[in-house]
TrEMBL record:
GO terms for biological process: Mo-molybdopterin cofactor biosynthetic process. Its cofactor is Mg(2+). Belongs to the MoeA family. The keyword Magnesium applies. It comes from Caballeronia choica. It catalyses: adenylyl-molybdopterin + molybdate = Mo-molybdopterin + AMP + H(+). Pathway: Cofactor biosynthesis; molybdopterin biosynthesis. This is Molybdopterin molybdenumtransferase. NCBIfam families: Glp_gephyrin (NF045515), molyb_syn (TIGR00177). InterPro entries: MoaB/Mog-like_dom_sf (IPR036425), MoaB/Mog_dom (IPR001453), MoeA-like (IPR038987), MoeA_C_domain_IV (IPR005111), MoeA_C_domain_IV_sf (IPR036688), MoeA_linker/N (IPR005110), MoeA_linker/N_sf (IPR036135). Catalyzes the insertion of molybdate into adenylated molybdopterin with the concomitant release of AMP. GO terms for molecular function: metal ion binding; molybdopterin molybdotransferase activity.
Length: 432
């Protein structure tokens, strides 16, 4: 490994030529811990979706603001349930949502009440309308299925005034926008969006719109990266294609480091690549070159770059040098980069949710590396998940990602998979 000046000691415990995925994840996580004060801004609710909350949101009110009915039915004093098998009450009036019944009904009275209407004074229980028989202004119902206080929503039951309704680090979801609105909150403090610069390297690369000559390929990685970054709601900064020469790469890296919080490149980090890549990255910062024990996605450069004349001077940015192969770019992004971007964005860490599925085919797998195969999962009538691979798993076969609906995550120690074996799958839905 190219040595790094400041990498935590943990790197030293592993062979950088076969770094297990979880070790790489741990190291990246340590380095991606937000440093210092993170800038924030206030945005209105509609602009807050998918942003990271910068501070706890304290509920300024009780929700619901008053005790109210959870059912359409009749409100009465629950104390009258004691000692009788059937209760007969007369209807003293009606309470509707937004139109309360303000008097206190007598001991043998009840109030016709609709869902959401305030519980009238002296009442604490609601009998659902389908449990009563009504004749004129009198209702009759059995008491055995009813407890005092039933079918009543208590004030503050959903959110209590003065308590945190949402925590800092929360990525604001649809329900959160509604929840904030239910508190009467019009704007919230969110973290500044992370700026992520990305570029592709390679003399063979052509941009869409250019002519493809013999030996050249269209640059697809920038598009995949752009899309994956957008999904994480960071600010993507497209720096185009950079040719395989020292001057171009140095210029791109310095510019990216000045502009962005994180720099992601693809290609040019394999063993066969020009030594200037490594030299350059080391002169610009602390960069380690790893061969991660994962497939796809073996070679990866990771560290911190500086825009100044020497490491430690000028602006700094976290750097990920991803492999060039299109599927390897996606796998390393999801399993190595993604969490770092979320952490740097200030988001609270949430584990990805895998599902157990049965493999309906044998899968070749070499022990000693984690494999992220592309799978097509389906659920049978009993609710069990089954999975097959998309076929050829070459790290250049980008169509395998488009065809798949999940990653099949085959753990480090595991060998070949037989038909009927259980495997973990990670659905794309929500991830991709
Ligand atoms: P490298 O890691 O630079 O050796 O690239 C590995 C393989 O990925 C080569 O076949 C490259 O042509 C291909 N590749 C690299 N960058 C890209 C890109 N941006 N888009 C599509 N293919 C790429
Ligand atoms: Mg290359």
């Amino acid at each position: 490994m190219t040595t790094s000046r400041q990498f935590p000691d943990c790197v030293a415990y592993y062979d950088p030529n076969a770094l297990p995925v979880n070790a790489a994840q741990d190291i990246v996580r340590q380095w991606a811990a937000p440093r210092g004060h993170a800038p924030s801004e206030r945005v209105s609710l509609f602009d807050a979706l998918d942003r990271v909350l910068a501070e706890d949101v304290i509920s300024p009110i009780d929700v619901p603001s008053h005790d109210n009915s959870a059912m359409d039915g009749y409100a009465f004093a629950g104390a009258s349930l004691g000692g009788v098998r059937e209760l007969s009450l007369t209807v003293a009036g009606t309470a509707l949502a937004g139109r309360p019944f303000l008097d206190t009904p007598g001991a043998t009275q009840c109030v016709r009440i609709m869902t959401g209407a305030l519980i009238p004074p002296g009442c604490d229980t609601v009998v659902p309308q389908e449990s009563v028989s009504r004749e004129g202004d009198t209702i009759l119902f059995a008491t055995d299925a009813l407890q005092p206080g039933q079918n009543r929503r208590l004030a503050g039951e959903d959110l209590a005034r003065g308590r945190p309704a949402l925590r800092a680090g929360r990525i604001v979801r649809a329900s959160d926008l509604g929840l904030l609105a239910s508190l009467g909150i019009a704007e919230v403090a969110v973290r500044r969006r992370l700026r992520v610069a990305f570029f592709s390297t390679g003399d063979e690369l052509r941009s869409v719109g250019e002519e493809l000559t013999a030996g050249s390929v269209y640059d697809s990685n920038r598009y995949t990266l752009f899309a994956m970054l957008r999904r994480l709601n960071v600010e993507p900064i497209d720096l185009g294609i950079v040719r395989d020469d020292r001057a171009s790469l140095e210029k791109a890296l310095r510019h990216a480091t000045e502009t962005a919080d994180v720099v992601i490149s693809s290609g040019g980090v394999s063993v066969g690549d020009a030594d200037f890549t490594r030299e350059l990255m080391n002169s610009l910062g602390d960069v380690a070159f790893w061969k991660i024990a994962m497939r796809p996605g073996r070679p990866l450069a990771f560290g911190r770059l500086w825009s100044g004349p020497r490491a430690g001077e000028g602006e700094s940015a976290l750097f990920f040098g991803l492999p060039g192969n299109p599927v390897a770019v996606m796998a390393t992004f999801y399993f190595i980069v993604r969490e770092a971007l979320l952490a740097l964005s200030g988001a609270t860490r949430e584990a990805l949710c895998t599902i157990r599925a049965t493999s309906t085919e044998p899968i070749r797998k070499r022990a000693g590396r984690t494999e992220f195969q592309r799978g097509i999962a389906s659920r049978d009538d009993d609710g069990h998940f089954h999975v097959v691979t998309t076929g050829p798993q070459g790290s250049g076969v980008l169509s395998s990602m488009s065809e798949a609906n999940c990653f099949i995550v085959l753990e480090h120690e595991r060998g070949d998979i037989d038909v009927g074996d259980s495997v973990d799958i990670l659905p794309f839905d929500g991830l991709i």
